[in-house]
Amino acid sequence: MQLNRIHGRSFGMEHLHFPNESAEYRRARNQLLVEEMVLRRHIERVAAQRRALPRGGIVPEDYVFEGSGGRCRLSELFAPGKDTLAVYSFMFGPERERPCPGCTHFLDGLDGSARHILQRINFVVVAKSPIGRILDFAKERGWRHLDLLSTAGNTYDRDYFGDSIALSKPMRQQQEFKDGEEWDMPILNVFRREGGTIRHSWASELLYVPAEPGQEYRHNDLLDPVWNMFDIAPEGRGDFQPKLDY
Fold first, then answer.
1. How far is residue 234's CA from residue 212's CA, in Å, rounded to a whole number?
2. Long-range contacts of residues 49-54, Cβ cutoff 8 Å, at least 24 apart
């Protein structure tokens, strides 16, 4: 039994014991379990800070997207009774022969989660290719539950950094963009409706801070089951890179 402390309170905690484990293993695992509890608390503290952010900027225009059913405005993406909208910018612009494998594996998982997500908030995926091309890929991939939209006719991705067009020169240097080079980028933006006003709430801005050694960007990791599964494996993530086909 090991004493632990949560919120300033000490208590005795009984631990599991698996068949044939050594005392050395159990001591080390108990120490790791304490760290996992600390991490759990820290994740919730960060989530609380995220929820407590001041009101973000008002969306500059009611963007018009192209969907499977025709044109729709940003304001029309909010279902009755659901005032939060998450928008994921998918790296599948017209200049790409095939979409980004990293985005694709991420959306493979979200396609299965979408039915649950939509019970509480609104969620759409946007890309800069024409809508027909996006839907063709979705059919190829077997996606059934993602709401897919094209930003080909608006400036949404430029304004909310789903591409590199509006990045400042210092940011371009920080991100190691070459002169004249532009990319679509895999950012998740969250918006909040307040009456007739729509405001930006949060974005996965870790995408745009310098990567730390061995960590790359990890801007959507908390939402990504693939990376989280690898993190609990003894061999870790290794040098794995998602592919469109294996």
1. 22
2. 50/202, 53/201, 53/202
Distance CA 208, CA 15 (A): 41
- Which tokens in the block code for residue 209? 């801070």
99 in the same domain as 3: no
Contact 207, 219 (CB under 8 A): yes
Measured in degrees and rounded to the nearest 5, phi and psi for residue 121 equal -135, 165
User: Do 46 and 81 reside in the same domain of the chain?
Assistant: no
The whole-model pTM stands at 0.92
Residues in the chain: 246
pLDDT of residue 3: 47
Q: Has residue 36 been placed in a domain?
A: yes
Q: Contact at 8 Å (CB) between 107 and 223?
A: no
SS3 state of residue 69? coil
Given pLDDT bands bounded at 50, 70 and 90, which one contains residue 214?
confident
| pLDDT of 203 higher than 70 | yes
Query: What does residue 218 show for φ and ψ, rounded to 5 degrees?
Result: 55, 30
Give the domain extent around 121. Answer: 64-208
Q: In angstroms, how far is the first alpha carbon of the chain from the final one? A: 46
Q: Which two tokens stand for residue 206?
A: 């870790």
Residue 75: other Cβ atoms inside 10 A: 14
Return the higher-pLDDT residue of 199 and 8. Answer: 199
